[in-house]
Amino acid sequence: MKKIIHLIAAARPNFMKIAPLYHALNKQDWCEVHIIHTGQHYDANMSDSIFADLMLPEPHFHLGIGSGSHAHQTGSVMIAYEKIVLEKERPDFLVVVGDVNPTAACSMVATKLHIPVAHLEAGLRSGDRRMPEEINRLVTDAICDTLWTPSPDADENLRNEGHPESRIVRVGNIMMDSFELLRDKIEAEKSPEKYGLEIGNYGVVTLHRPSNVDEYDSLKKLVDQLIITSEKIPLIFAVHPRTRNSLQTHGLWDDIQSIDRLKLVEPVSYTPFMSLVKSAKLIITDSGGIQEETTYLNIPCLTLRENTERPITVSEGTNKLVDIDNLQENVDLVLEGKWRSGTKPDLWDGKTAGRVTREIKHWLF
């Protein structure tokens, strides 16, 4: 009888992480793999179209949780997923990815029901417990049965927290698998051309962290700096729903929308977005995954955060932590050709899904 494996998908980056693994597992004759969509991202461009891009089927179960407070999301996911496991389908193995609320929630449900759980992308730490994602990482890694890490710093973080060596397995970065899975489609997409942008002569902006976009003062400074940057190089800004709402609430939407060289677009699904990233001169972001993708593609990444849970992108890659006060000097470094070239970390090779598949089979048999 085939083993049943559940993959939990919640936020946009999770979709990219489960896709290569879904396709790898779906080729196996010893398992059935089912996707559980928790519904955290309810915008169509941030969910449905990305599933289509990634050639994923309709989720086998959809929890439909939507937005809400951290407590609401975590509790609602626990209740809904437990109901599936107890009443509809009990998996033999659960894979959770990333650091969103459903990652921790589903891990707790499965662990309490004695279902083996693996955390893909384990061991990442920013050291900043003000970030809800950091709490989710700590909770998830504390209770999962096996911890699949993307990099040596993640291994070391887990060792420092007392996790036994037997639970730590470095498998590499599965986000690179997603890119390679869709490389031909990404290259055929020609997003820069569609948006009237010159290849290699524009910047991509993504901003959504509460510390950057929720309060008027910080958001106004960001808007002002983006306007200044757009005078040096055209920008395309994929506006997250949270950021759009804040810009409108604080009366800043019209200010930024009126700038000719700063193009505002809806959240873009994976293939067209990576087409934009691949041909960009620079990226300005506060997101997590794009720090890794830019390192893989050797593109300058200016991360507007105090810290990162992906320090290898700084130490080995093309990422640099910046703040609003030094953003312009770092933009100038890129435009003057003075940004350092990075290297691809070990096992960021597009073959992580195969390693994970072998780990799951070894665990189950």
TrEMBL record:
Keywords, alphabetical: Isomerase
User: Which Enzyme Commission number(s) are on file for it?
Assistant: 5.1.3.14
Q: Where is the UDP-N-acetylglucosamine 2-epimerase domain?
A: 24-360
Q: Which CDD domains match?
A: GTB_UDP-GlcNAc_2-Epimerase (cd03786)
Q: Which GO terms describe its molecular function?
A: UDP-N-acetylglucosamine 2-epimerase activity
Q: Which Pfam families match?
A: Epimerase_2 (PF02350)
User: What's the protein here called?
Assistant: UDP-N-acetylglucosamine 2-epimerase
Q: What's the source species for this entry?
A: hydrothermal vent metagenome
